[in-house]
Amino acid sequence: MARIDALTPAFLVVGPLATEDDVDNLRGYAFDVAEQMGAPTTYATHTGHSITDFAAVFVLGSVTDLRDTPTLVLVAEALAAGVPVLEPQGPQAAGRCDDCGQRQTIRTVTDEYGDTTCATCRGEAVCAWCGDDADVSTEIVERGETWLPVHVGCARGVLPVAA
């Protein structure tokens, strides 16, 4: 994955939206994507997204099981634009980063030696606020419908200041 610009969502997460529980599940899945992929991730509750602004679309569930119009529209736009549409990996593919131990349920990546590595240990994760390399001192904060991995010290810049 290429380095990202500050506060620019790299991934879009789509899925069922029919109930509040569906939206909560979608929000939680987007958190997991942001944490494990080390990049800003937006969860889509409407069709007002420019699909080509994202590196990939992650689907909560299977594309063949989708029924919500906004989700179907976004998946169709992604496929038409050549943006990768990624379904969840099966539990048998999940692993843990050999360096830091982070559980990899979204996308397990192995290096040329067969070692499992997370985005942070591969050097792909960056702080969405300052753009510097992310490291173990990051946290995932929510801004609107986007989860942002940021350094602990940068979180104040992302979160609204209390009145």
Summarize this entry quickly.
By secondary structure, this protein is α/β, with parallel strands linked by helices. The protein is 24% helix and 20% strand.
Architecture overview:
With 163 residues, the chain is α/β, with parallel strands linked by helices. The protein has one domain. Helices cover 24% and strands 20% of the residues. The chain is built from 4 helices and 10 strands. It has helices at residues 20-37, 69-81, 119-122, 155-158; strands spanning 11-14, 41-43, 56-59, 85-86, 95-96, 103-104, 109-110, 116-117, 138-143, 146-151. The strands form 3 sheets. Strands 4-3-1-2-10-9 form a 6-stranded mixed beta sheet. A hairpin with a 2-residue loop joins strand 9 (138-143) and strand 10 (146-151). The protein is globular, with a radius of gyration of 16 Å. It starts with 10 loop residues before the first strand and ends in a 5-residue tail after the last helix. The model is unreliable at 1-6 (pLDDT under 50).
